[in-house]
Amino acid sequence: MRGPAENAELALLLEVAGTPKPGNVDREHEYADLRFEHFLAGAVGATKGFQAAAAGASLGRAFETAIEGMAEQSGGNTQFGAILLLTPLVRAAGQAALSPAEADRVVAESSVADALGFYRAFDHVSVSVSEPPEGWEPLDVRRGSNAESAIRDRDISLADVMTRSADRDGIAAELVGGFERTFDAADRLAELSGPVTDRAATVYLELLAAEPDTFVRIQHGPTVAATVRDRAEEALSGDVAPDDLATEFVDQDINPGMTADIVAGALFVALERELEV
Amino acid sequence: MRGPAENAELALLLEVAGTPKPGNVDREHEYADLRFEHFLAGAVGATKGFQAAAAGASLGRAFETAIEGMAEQSGGNTQFGAILLLTPLVRAAGQAALSPAEADRVVAESSVADALGFYRAFDHVSVSVSEPPEGWEPLDVRRGSNAESAIRDRDISLADVMTRSADRDGIAAELVGGFERTFDAADRLAELSGPVTDRAATVYLELLAAEPDTFVRIQHGPTVAATVRDRAEEALSGDVAPDDLATEFVDQDINPGMTADIVAGALFVALERELEV
After folding, report:
1. Fewer CB atoms inside 10 Å of the end CB: C or N, chain B?
2. How close B251 comes to chain A (CA, Å)?
3. How far is the C-alpha of A244 from the C-alpha of A235, rounded, in Å?
């Protein structure tokens, strides 16, 4: 039987295999320097951190371990956001039956040490993030472990960090918002029929059409993010072919990474609830 | 750092991701009932067995554990032959620097208990195999654990089983022949340049053009196996497009599975020797 760590790894693999997921690497779309194989190695590398989380290691340490392992390939950041979403879910699943309440509790109980682990993860890989809010410059995540004294001085937990980021980062919003979109998307995956990777591609498009992707907003601003949402809606209603949309997004360097991360989280929840592959 | 178990899992993933590999499932070719996602789940499931092998568990037990985990998906047999090839290689890599001599020793030292583990693996999944040689009916692998008393009575080790099968099964031939094709193919992977999955597809075609696939011979006879070899040679020389050959083989239900298994073994050896992904 696959345990939570194995299901989290499989969720990462199924997510990247789902095609077409316009704007993201999948098994039929990749970039010269960020390839499908980097995501395979990233998923394998992250598993040690998932195993730690399932066994009850602290959230921050498990996350840092997973990111350090993920980074052991030459493509750079492949699954940072997905792993941030998965780690508390895996830790919750390792303790009791997985539920939004249990996952919520894992984040709510996080400590300053967990925040330090989260920051240390940035030492291992370069991640695109938005500028910190005013007054939070010493806590800019890009400082990585250099932010340690600022975190300690202000007594900031991982939950505090996520709360501060929730309005501009969709994954942080999940962590402090009861993982609502993740669990809803897991229900959709179970409702749909056919190959799991096809379901993942459908749910990706549905999520993208429902809310602007925060990663696109960070990289291109709110107008582009709104347009991307509109285009996803047109793809869902059949006005544009998803494959054409994939080409369009790649040409414009648009990468709705946050939405793909939610799909990975949803796949994990569905697998824990015995979705059959 | 990825250890031997993680490298073996990644080898399975990179193998199935390499495209086109005419006649085998890859990330752009699958069947309605045997899909890319089944291979992803098969690789994740096998890892527990690889971990056991790397930690020094007996060959038979590690193999059975890997197959039991591999079988936890609805596609049936995905990677039996590849796991048979990988398990002694992983065990060797777990003890010392990986070499043909070390891998050879692991197989040569195998016991009756290892043969039992090998047979028990057939309880978990249905595998296409040839009829046993005359006098070996009680040792038909398809009997699975029911063959136990016959194995014990005749005091047969796993190496004995492989030696008996080597003339008709290319993976058995590797296990008792110093893993020659596997290590040679690993050298080729390291020599080539570009994405690892592209190299895997090239080496697959080279191997297929060099020797008839024994799995094709079991399923379709020697004439078809020879034709498949000829066609692979034509694909290598540019007389037929590999993608067209993929369609041709799928239409004729030709599956050169043994050759894909060797590629998985070669990817593992190359990763252990620090091939970068």
Report:
1. N
2. 22
3. 9
Assess contact for B13 and A44: CB atoms under 8 A: yes
Distance between CA atoms of B98 and B109, rounded to whole angstroms?
16
Alpha-carbon distance B146 to nearest alpha carbon in chain A (angstroms): 24
**Cα B226 from Cα B248, distance rounded (Å):** 15
CA angle A97, B125, A267 (to 5 degrees): 35
A chain contacts of residue B197, beta-carbon cutoff 8 Å: 35-37
Residue B133 pLDDT more than 90? no
pLDDT digits (tens, 9 = 90+) for B135-174: 889 999 999 999 999 999 999 999 999 999 999 899 999 9
- Confirm if B120 and B65 have CB atoms less than 8 A apart: no
d(CA A6, CA A9): 5
Which pair of tokens denotes residue A276? 């059959």
| A vs B: CB pairs below 8 A | 76
Residue B149 to residue A88: CA distance in whole angstroms: 49
- On the CB side of B277, how many CA atoms lie within 13 Å of its CA? 33
Contact B75, B33 (CB under 8 A): yes
Contacts of residue A14 in chain B, CB cutoff 8 Å? 37, 40
In chain B, residues with a C-beta closer than 8 Å to the C-beta of A10 are 40-41, 44
**Torsion (CA) B175, B209, B25, A43 in degrees, nearest 10:** 60
The candidate with the shortest Cα–Cα distance to B177, out of B111, B108, B129, is: B108
Residues A200 and A195: their CA atoms lie apart, in Å, by 9
- Over residues B62-76, the pLDDT tens digits come to 999 999 999 999 999
Alpha helices in chain B (DSSP H): 4-17, 36-54, 59-70, 80-95, 100-108, 112-121, 148-154, 158-165, 170-175, 180-191, 196-210, 214-220, 222-236, 242-251, 257-272
Q: What angle do CA A236, A237, A240 make, to 5 degrees?
A: 80
Report the C-alpha gap between B142 and B62 in whole angstroms.
Answer: 19
- Collect all residues of chain A within an 8 Å Cβ-Cβ radius of residue B195: 35, 37
Measure CB to CB from residue B41 to each of A10, A35, A36 and give the nearest one.
A10
Nearest to B40 among A17, A69, A72 (CB): A17
Chain B residue with minimal CA distance to A277? Answer: B73
| Residues of A within an 8 Å Cβ radius of B | 1-2, 6, 9-10, 13-14, 17, 27-28, 35-38, 40-41, 44-45, 47, 69, 72-74, 195-197, 276-277
Give the Å distances, CA to CA, from A135 to A112, A168, A176, B235: 19, 16, 21, 63
Instruction: Give the span between the Cα atoms of B38 and A277, in whole angstroms.
Output: 7
What's at A244, amino acid-wise? D
pLDDT per residue as tens digits for the range A193-238 = 999 999 999 999 999 999 999 999 999 999 999 999 999 999 999 9
Pairwise CA distance, residues A214 & B253, whole Å: 46
